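seq:
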Amino acid sequence: MKAQDLRISFLNFYKERDHTVVPSSSLVPRDDPTLLFTTAGMVQFKPLYAGIKPLPYKRATSCQKCLRLTDLEKVGFSPKYCTFFEMLGNFSFGDYFKKEALIWAWEYLTEILKLDKKRLYVSVFKEDDEAYDIWHKIIGLEENRIYRLGEEDNFWGPAGGVGACGPSSEIYYDLGEEFGCGKEECAPGCSCDRFLELYNIVFPMYDQQPDGQRLPLKNRGIDTGMGLERLAMVIQNKKTIFETDLFDFIVKKLEKILNIEKSDENKPFFYVTSDHLRALTFAICDGVLPSNEERGYVLRLLLRRTLILYYKFLKEFPQGPFLYQIPSEIIYHYSDFYPELKEGINKVPLIIKEEEERFLFTIKKAIFKWEEVISEIKRKGEKVISGEKLFFLHDTFGLNIEIMEELAKSENLLLDIEGFKKKIEERKRERISVSREIPKENVEFCGYDKLEVESEVISLKKISPLEYEIILNPTPFYSEKGGQIGDTGKIIYENLEIPVIDSYYQYQVPVHKIKMEKEIDLLGKKVLAVVDKERRYEIMRAHTTTHLLHKALKLVLGEEVRQEGSLVDVGRLHFDFNFYRSLKEEEILEIEKIIFQKILQNIRVEKYYNLPLAKAKEMGAIALFLEEYGEYVNVIKIGDFSLEVCGGTHLDYTGEIGLFKIVNETSIAAGIRRIEGYCGKKAFEYLLLKDERLKELRKELQVSEENLLKKIREIVENLKEEEKKRKKIVEKYLPMLVNNLSGKKILEDIELIIEDYSFLEKEEIRRICDYLKDKEKKIAILFRRENENWEFVIFVSKDLREKIKAKDLAKKLGEFLEGGGGGREDLAEGGGKIRKLSEIKDFIKKLINY
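struct:
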């Protein structure tokens, strides 16, 4: 019976018993801050048990996508654990209870799936006589097949630490003695793999509060869970979940891609990789991207862990990314039941490939340093890697502590985790030395609606011969925060105008930098504070445009797009957002069109100041970087188009933006893109400059605007023809170039050739190496410059390859040049930073013991 048939069989069984079939919710729990991921089938039903929402049904059944890292270390090494899994479940909300739940569970396993009753055992909570009697007296199980276990085994939940929870009863499947620990007392509840936890039936009776108190649950009911992977393992008579049809196709695809056959020695790598790739694929399709925080950190950890295990089991790093080739297969395999996966068929491989490339580029240096640290520790006879060394490897080379734990296992070394955490905390701890008294009174910012106000200087400090920091109360000057730069302007004291050249926060107080040619004691004096109005309006144009851009990106690219950072400057903006690829020209044009439409519509920009955060959420405002906001926030509403929490300054109408133009779109990190744009006067100046360049180009080429493109195409075609001629010349003279190649005789009459061939293309350098293939006792390392870096190709003749391999030389040379390299035994390539050829020659000679 295939896994797909098991899903349908289970759901139909409970549908026939008046359960509503509910689709799986996202792996990202909705409105549940207690969980990073959906960890059980009941997560989407938590509000129904608590009575928070009206009951749309009293019985439900589902096959839920879940992700847990609880047993991460056991995945791939045990037959039953995985991080991503599908949980079959049936649920009751104030309807049926223990009797029906246990009878139906037994009926499904023994009568529908025909499992051998002799291999089934059950457990109940030690104080649950009711469940015990149902199993013994109603279902008819012998007493020696029913086990009373404690809270650790038979009291479930709650998911996330709060909510529905209660005692449980579990059905176990005996896999046989070969999976057991051999102990006489081995039974359900034993830590070995013999008795497989198959079907867990929970009786939610309590509502656990954040303080641990358990109150009676409003809708007492049933919450069950049965892992599809484990059920498939039993039904398909496999020795591990990874041999079932849920994983087997992934393992086979990996074998084919890597040209490596799974064996007893390396199978943990294949199993872990299969599991982690399923988790990555499903999570990315649900809108999660690899990052250094929260959910994104989990994804990054899973991906990097697979590559570390590659190194651990296969004793080398892959020559390039390979994981990205699997997700499309996973999506194809699972999309019949989870059609939402189809939307990720293109983006998931690209996201994973970019993350792979990024990690592989850095990890080789990190492992080189790790091996140095390990050698030093072993030489000293130590058994523990100190927290200081762990922090050094983490901080300098980016090794996650989880990855170092994995690597340390094979070295039989322990990690000083507490020492590591202490160093992390030391790094986080702020070392602030306040050299002056900050006024204790609150400073009022009145610059949302006033750009000129009478104020008092309540603090004054000289910071350079001509510059001072002042604090005004009240102040109309916006201090840099939330990506928006600070205001400039002037203060007027007794008809003397003093420039304000910057505004920013120090110790959570708005500070303004002024410039005075002659020192004046302004402390306690009344001044007129005047914001540079024209500059402020250009900043407001950029900020209001940023909100329009955020919404336009969601409309064009998908609702999963979220802001990752921004800069709001004078007439220009940077907007960073999560996305897996570069934007297409037509997508950029569509975004510009949407924003232009909103500018033409001249929509009113509504501003709500000092709203309670809860009220802002009720309004549906998108909250970005909430850690910067307090109990009260501002909300900016642009018609029905955009609604965001924002502390910045904004226009009154979108028509005041005038113009907007996207000038650049690029990647700034794995999975993070940046759009740069101009608006208002800056956009106008940008378009004027483009027009000027166009005029200069027409003048230089002596053509009209109508014929400009035609002329450029002619030039391009001429260049192509010239390149063809150059290649013909190179083709003619390459053999002559090879014949004139000569190097220096080194160890055992080996000829070492190191040359700079920057006038050749890389493919032409490869051709030179091809001409050398029949030569003996030759090592050729041929270089070319490319964008301020060296590219190199290495050839080693056949007679030398037993001792000297091109791929090894490329790897070491790449590291020497702070880049990378790899390839075959005869031919390898790489690159790195520019260094003198004489230095490179000396390095190569040392490598081959000359």
